[in-house]
Each structure stands twice: as C-alpha cells, then as structure tokens.
C-alpha cells in the first residue's frame, strides 16, 4: 500500500516536499502537504512556517526614517529621470524593510544601509525641477510660421535657423530639460530668427541702373560722370548678389541716385539735351524719382547757345 507515493504542497513558495516526504519551510506562512498513491491511499496535513526573528545586528532605524521622509517629499515638476530614480529608490527601501521584518536571513546590514542612502540621495535630487517651457513654446510656434515661408528668405542663416528650431523642439519634448537648457534653446532660436533676412525688392535699383546705363558720357562733365560710373558698378554688384539684403540694396540705390543727381551737362553735349531727356524719361516708371537737373541744365545751355546765335546775326544786319 505504501508503494508509489506522490507528495505535493499546496503552496511551494511556503513549503516544499520531496519524493521521500521531506518537508522544507521556505518562508513564513501555511501550506497543505498531501500524499497519495494509485491504491487509494491519501493523507494530508497543514504545515505552518513561522517567521524568523530579525537578526539582532540588523538595524533598520535609518531605513524607516528615510521611508518616512520620502513620504513627505513633493516630486511634482521635477525632471523625469529624477522622479523615476526616486520611485525606484523608495520601492527598493520598502522591499528591503519588508524582508527584514519577515525574517529573511539573507538580508545584510550593508543592503539595508545602501537602501536608505540611495533613498536620501534621491530625495535631495528633488530640487532639480523641470524648466518652464512657456516662452519656448511661443517662440517655436512663431518660428514654425517663418519656416513655412522659408523660401522668402535669403540662404544666409537658413541652416542655422533650421538647426536652432530642431534643437528647440527637442528641448521642449525632453522631460529632463532643466531651466538652463530651456533658456539656451530659446535664445539660440531667437537669434537665428533675427538673423534671417527677406529676399530684397530690387526693382528701384534695377530702374536706376537702367537709367544710368542709358546716359552718354560725352553729354556730361567728366568728374561727375566718373563718380556716377563708380556708383553704377557698385549698384550692379549688389544687384547681382543673391545674398544682398534689403539694407544693402537700398544703400546702393541711394548712392546711385545721388550720383545721377550730381551730373552736370557738358557744353559739347548741350545740343543733345532734348534727346537725353527722351532717353532718361523713357527709363523711368510710375512712382520712381528721377533727378532732372542734368536734363534741365542741358536744355538751358542749348537755349543759351541758340540765343547767342540770333544776337550775332542781328548785329551783322
């Protein structure tokens, strides 16, 4: 009848039993140990495993204090990594304390001390609050509006702007970003936005260049015309420069306009004043400002020459 016995435990985490019926207590608790065989033999008993008394040399006072202190800490607003570290340290401390209280003989004083030290450090890191990203968010929205119209801006500064915008987005999404990180990203993006320049309007500069190129050097005094040619060359360089900004375009246009205004018709070219007037006027457009002094001067000189000729003829009569 005692052959082929099968032993079992209702809770093998509390009590284990081998094929010979040897029972081993694993942790505090109760379990039913039973035995049976094919002949119909069956028996069972309840085994109670008592908790061991904690070792006299294990002190948990500091561990209990650290756990109590952690319960009073406010981790709202801290960076994600700090919050995660705190939660893990607190859970570990609670687990170690529970093992000591349950009589786990494998717990050492070093393990207890390590648990409370790590928890205290995690509590101290609670000062590392996440950065306020309110202003960074506003600037990102504005920058994205500029990004949607990036083709309207000069190439210079575009790459830096895109990099600053990408970095700002990364910082905004980073749960571990401190205030210094947020402030730096905000400043870099603002600077990059400020450095962008719209593609300038060169219509006025083009008109002035056309006017200047239509003039004949023989019709004007040499010094003034040479000065105008210098301004014309500068204007053409700016006009051809794909990276010239609006300030540079406006400055070149103003310089060329001023040089045109200083032109003085020469005596040799006075008779051609009317043709010069026609040439310059043809180059202007609605809304443009053209200095007519050179034209008027030519007309005056031409009229004076004609009057002188009439006077001479009258004297001969």
TrEMBL record:
InterPro entries for the chain: Big_2 (IPR003343), Invasin/intimin_cell_adhesion (IPR008964)
Keywords, A to Z, come to:
Membrane, Transmembrane, Transmembrane helix
Q: Which domain of life is it from?
A: Bacteria
What's one Pfam family the UniProt record gives for this protein?
FIVAR
* The BIG2 domain, residue ranges: 6-39
TM segments? 292-312
Query: Which NCBIfam families does this entry report, sorted A to Z?
Result: LPXTG_anchor (TIGR01167)
Put simply, this protein is called: Ig-like domain-containing protein
Q: Specify the species.
A: Candidatus Mediterraneibacter faecigallinarum
């Amino acid at each position: 009848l005692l052959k082929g016995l099968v032993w079992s435990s209702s809770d093998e985490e509390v009590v284990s039993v081998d094929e010979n019926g040897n029972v081993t207590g694993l942790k505090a608790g109760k379990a039913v140990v039973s035995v049976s065989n094919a002949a119909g033999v069956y028996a069972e008993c309840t085994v109670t495993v008592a908790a061991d008394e904690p070792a006299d040399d294990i002190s948990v006072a500091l561990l209990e204090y650290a756990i109590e202190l952690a319960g009073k800490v406010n981790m709202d607003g801290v960076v994600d990594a700090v919050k995660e570290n705190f939660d893990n340290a607190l859970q570990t401390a609670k687990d170690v304390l529970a093992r000591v209280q349950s009589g786990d003989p494998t717990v050492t004083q070093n393990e207890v001390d390590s648990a409370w030290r790590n928890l205290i450090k995690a509590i101290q890191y609670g000062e590392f609050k996440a950065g306020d990203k309110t202003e960074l968010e506003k600037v990102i929205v504005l920058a994205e509006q500029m990004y949607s119209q990036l083709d309207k801006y000069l190439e210079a500064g575009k790459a830096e702007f895109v990099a600053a915008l990408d970095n700002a987005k990364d910082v905004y999404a980073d749960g571990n970003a401190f205030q210094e990180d947020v402030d730096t990203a905000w400043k870099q993006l603002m600077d990059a936005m400020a450095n962008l320049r719209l593609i300038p309007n060169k219509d006025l500069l083009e008109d002035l260049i056309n006017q200047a190129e239509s003039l004949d050097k023989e019709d004007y005094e040499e010094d003034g015309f040479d000065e105008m040619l210098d301004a014309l060359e500068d204007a053409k360089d700016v006009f051809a420069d794909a990276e010239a900004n609006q300030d540079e375009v406006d400055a070149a246009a103003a310089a060329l306009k001023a040089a045109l205004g200083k032109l003085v018709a020469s005596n040799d070219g006075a008779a051609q004043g009317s043709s010069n007037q026609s040439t310059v006027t043809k180059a202007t457009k609605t809304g443009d400002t053209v200095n007519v002094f050179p034209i008027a001067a030519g007309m005056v000189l031409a009229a004076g020459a004609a009057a002188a000729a009439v006077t001479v003829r009258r004297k001969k009569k």
